[in-house]
């Protein structure tokens, strides 16, 4: 037989077998449990799978290659094609065609050069758009919207990553009628407060601008307050470097009854002016950050006083006034809770873990940069603590870096009911804490001996002492008195003095610190219970866990 003829016959047989194999696989897919799912359930599976798609993802093609029925079901699922990422004009047109009249969720991805044609096509579909997330936004004269209304639009996000001038930037949404708009996020895009995006229907508003000294949006505070006053449904408000210069205004009082989170990042003067005119529920989460390492301390104190008086005097609430229960102080700021938190939780490096546990963080006041304690007569955290009502605080954790005698004196007077105290910092920074616990008014130059105290010891109700990362001093010929200056030995002396005065601790916790058997024995003599890291204790040390 001729070789070419035989070769043709073989190829024909292979082609026939491939058709049979494809038909058999399709039939097997139909026998599989997932192949028997009703169309409605398949559609839900497709939508669930597509919810994780991102720019450039092509996972949707897997759906079309499984079997003919899946292909048909996916093609009829309009919502599956309504999540559009404008990566190219052809792709956008194809998705718009497949989605027909389904509500659209639009993403315009990052790009150094915006793709104008797909943007124009998408803006023409605003009447059926549900959300739009526009990255690397810049105003395009060619992309002006040909429509006047977006009746289904609920969420608008505009971000710009390039340097921005403090000149109002027009957007296609400024004059658009959006009756159901609830979420707006503007990042590095100066938008005038007259834009329709600042709608009375908003529940979530985020507005960020970069911090530039002596540069402000040319807007007035009365206009801002008037807009906020109309947003009675607002639940989340985050403003960053967008507050106008404070000016004389009518007595405009803004009441935000639904607000549960307020984040303000701005200069103290503008922040204080805002807090003077805005009230919110007592259980709102309030975060204030100042964009400088050296804010004006008087203005900071006025901000905190306005803040605490606002949430403590909620006129519409029938619940009792909340009192601050827990405090966390670092160089960068102060955090206070109205729900008790143990010092072990407060000592966590990541405070976001508290938010994930639905713990109400009422007040957070911070600075953007790390201050230099030597360059200021009063630390930032000291200013904040003096302005906070701390009389009911029962647990507190302090990063001692930068603390001074004035700070400790203020804390002793303002927290008489403290029961749990956590401390962290280099050895020298513990000196003020040691003398406060021992009852010394001024820090001595010699180690504390506890023999003659001139005043009552601080925190008389203290039950738990939490110490983290105590740095030990090595006993060498150069340091013959290192044991006397060792922080563990010092704390034991102070605690023994308190014990003799009837102030015995119920528990002492020492973590991230290497302890010897002698340390453990001495600690057990000044507290009812000692807790420490097992892997940091000498093998022959006895410790209660």
UniProtKB/TrEMBL annotation:
<dbReference type="InterPro" id="IPR001810">
    <property type="entry name" value="F-box_dom"/>
</dbReference>
<feature type="domain" description="F-box">
    <location>
        <begin position="35"/>
        <end position="85"/>
    </location>
</feature>
<protein>
    <submittedName>
        <fullName>F-box protein</fullName>
    </submittedName>
</protein>
<dbReference type="InterPro" id="IPR036047">
    <property type="entry name" value="F-box-like_dom_sf"/>
</dbReference>
<dbReference type="Pfam" id="PF12937">
    <property type="entry name" value="F-box-like"/>
</dbReference>
């Amino acid at each position: 037989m001729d070789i070419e003829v035989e070769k043709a016959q073989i190829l024909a047989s292979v082609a026939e077998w491939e058709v049979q194999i494809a038909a058999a696989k399709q039939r097997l897919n139909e026998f599989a449990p997932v192949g028997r799912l009703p169309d409605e359930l398949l559609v839900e599976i497709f939508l669930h799978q597509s919810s994780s798609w991102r720019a450039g993802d092509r996972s949707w093609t897997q759906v079309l290659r499984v079997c003919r029925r899946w292909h048909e079901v996916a093609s009829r699922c309009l919502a599956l094609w309504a999540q559009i990422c404008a990566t190219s004009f052809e792709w956008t047109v194809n998705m718009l065609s497949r989605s027909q009249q389904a509500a659209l969720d639009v993403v315009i991805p990052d790009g150094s050069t915006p793709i104008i044609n797909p943007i124009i096509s998408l803006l023409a579909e605003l009447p059926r758009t549900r959300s739009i997330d526009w990255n690397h936004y810049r105003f395009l004269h060619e992309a002006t919207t040909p429509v006047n209304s977006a009746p289904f639009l609920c969420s608008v996000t505009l971000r710009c990553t390039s340097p921005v001038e403090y000149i109002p930037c027009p957007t296609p949404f400024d004059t658009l009628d959006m009756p159901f708009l609830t979420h707006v996020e503007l990042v590095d895009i100066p938008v005038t407060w007259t834009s329709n995006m600042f709608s009375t229907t908003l529940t979530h508003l985020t507005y960020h601008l970069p911090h530039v000294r002596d540069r402000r949006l040319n807007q007035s505070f009365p206009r801002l307050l008037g807009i906020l006053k109309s947003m009675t449904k607002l639940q989340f408000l985050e403003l960053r470097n967008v507050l106008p210069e404070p000016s004389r205004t009518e007595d405009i009082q803004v009441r935000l009854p639904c607000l549960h989170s307020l984040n303000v990042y701005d200069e103290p003067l503008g922040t204080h002016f805002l807090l003077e005119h805005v009230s919110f529920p007592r259980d709102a989460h309030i975060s204030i950050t100042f964009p400088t390492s050296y804010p004006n301390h008087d203005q900071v104190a006025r901000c905190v006083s306005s803040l605490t008086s606002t949430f403590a005097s909620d006129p519409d609430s029938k619940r009792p006034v909340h009192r601050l229960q827990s405090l966390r102080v670092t160089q960068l700021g102060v955090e206070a809770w109205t729900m008790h938190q143990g010092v072990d939780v407060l000592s966590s490096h990541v405070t976001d873990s508290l938010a994930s546990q639905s713990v109400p963080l009422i007040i957070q006041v911070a600075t953007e940069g790390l201050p230099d304690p030597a360059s200021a007569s009063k630390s930032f955290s000291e200013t904040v603590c003096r302005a906070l009502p701390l009389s009911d605080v029962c647990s507190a954790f302090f990063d001692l870096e930068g603390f001074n005698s004035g700070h400790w004196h203020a804390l002793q007077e303002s927290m008489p009911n403290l029961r749990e105290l956590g401390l962290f910092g280099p050895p020298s920074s513990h000196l003020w804490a040691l003398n406060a616990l021992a009852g010394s008014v001024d820090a001595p130059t010699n180690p504390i001996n506890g023999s003659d105290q001139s005043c009552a010891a601080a925190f008389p109700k203290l039950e738990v002492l939490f110490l983290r990362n105590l740095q030990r001093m090595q006993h060498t010929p150069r340091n013959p008195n290192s044991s006397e200056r060792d922080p563990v030995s010092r704390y034991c002396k102070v605690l023994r003095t308190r014990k003799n005065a009837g102030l015995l601790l119920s528990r002492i916790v020492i973590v991230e610190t290497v302890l010897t058997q002698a340390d453990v024995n001495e600690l057990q003599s000044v507290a009812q219970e000692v807790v420490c890291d097992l892997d940091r204790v000498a093998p022959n040390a006895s410790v209660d866990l």
